[in-house]
Design a protein that fits this description.
With 443 residues, this protein is mainly α. Helices cover 75% and strands 2% of the residues. Helix 13 runs antiparallel to helix 19 and helix 18 runs antiparallel to helix 19. The protein is globular, with a radius of gyration of 21 Å.
Length: 443
Amino acid sequence: MTRNAPVWLAWLMWGLVGSLYLIGFFQRVAPAVMVDDLMRDFQLGAALLGNLSAAYFYAYAAVQIPSGLLADGIGPRRLSSIAALLAAIGTLMFGLAGNFWLAYLGRALIGASVGVAFVTCMKLAGHWFPTNRFATVTGVALLLGNLGGVIAGVPLSVAVSAFGWRASMVASALVTLVLAGVIWLFVRDDPHEHGYRSHAHSSVLENGVLTPLRALRLVLMQRDTWLLFMAGGLSAAPVLVFAGLWGVPYLVQVYGLDRSYAATLTSTMLVAWAVGGPTLGAVSDRLGRRKLPYLLANLLTAALWGVFMTWQNLPTLLLFPLFAAIGFTSGALIIGFAFSREANHPGASGAVGGVVNMSVLGVAAIMQQALGRILDRNWDGLLVSGVRIYSHEAYLSAFWWLFICACLAVVAVFFTRETHCRIREGWETSASPHELQGVSTPE
């Protein structure tokens, strides 16, 4: 098996699992255009609504390490097809929920199931694409995911207005169910299953992946794992919290915009985030550097959030380029996934992906809930049609934490060590035979 798989086949295998990540991102930010409906149907304030939205994030974060270990163990095809089935069930549960707690359980099940998508995308990328394309391919995952975020903006807002939020969620559950079947039928874990050469690291092909406990122990012992864990979560949280929940009500209540126009503005941030991921990932691949582009992008992100916080009453037209710039530079978090993979044992690629990705949604979950509590603490009692209206000052009190997160991300990246886009040497002999588990490899 000396031939590489055709490019179209590699992208097809990867793209089908990537579609689950698209659906996961759609579900992640969908509550932003349903805030009024959810508050009204379940009689919620900002804190409880933050809890409902954060249920997805907490569950997503909780499954990241198990997902990484399962991706190494049973393979991306089995893991992602089962996950898509569970996501469909969770979405249906949320859409038909008659009370807050059933809706909460539905959101948690959605988060736990789609939480495997990004890890399995990275696992497949390591087998179907060469190492020097990893950041680019992972960046395309962000592009695909953010397409789901865009669909959860204006298109979902229009659908909710026309058919209601419940019918919209039921329809998305049916789409997810179909995807589960497609992944099961067509996705393959490694090119050798189609008769082509695998791009997995030589030590993995020769010895297999590490056992789950050994993989997790090695990953957690790496200093750079923890720095990139923090950098990823702290750089992603401001975008996910603002565009995924509080940005739309802020623009509606403070700027007086209608919901669809506000969703267009926040979708600008997500679209730019989607473009920034593959663009900055490709720049990193071409430069052969990880730390420098990641650090510079985070510095720019922090500066742009500083502009947003200190320039009061920005004209609406200036919000478009500002949100686009914030989203684009935040897309550099994709570099962190390639960075962390190269800093760790090649037989633990699923484990390191799960550990680092856990922070991306974990920090966002904490921030969504925390910002909701800050808003409720600063609420002056104004209600309109059963919906709480928060002042500009209340939002600013909450949004300062977005700027602080961006600054802390800069600090975390600063202390990492450069890998020069290569797996660090010395891993091949770092594990004894009983610490390895076999994988199916070509003869």
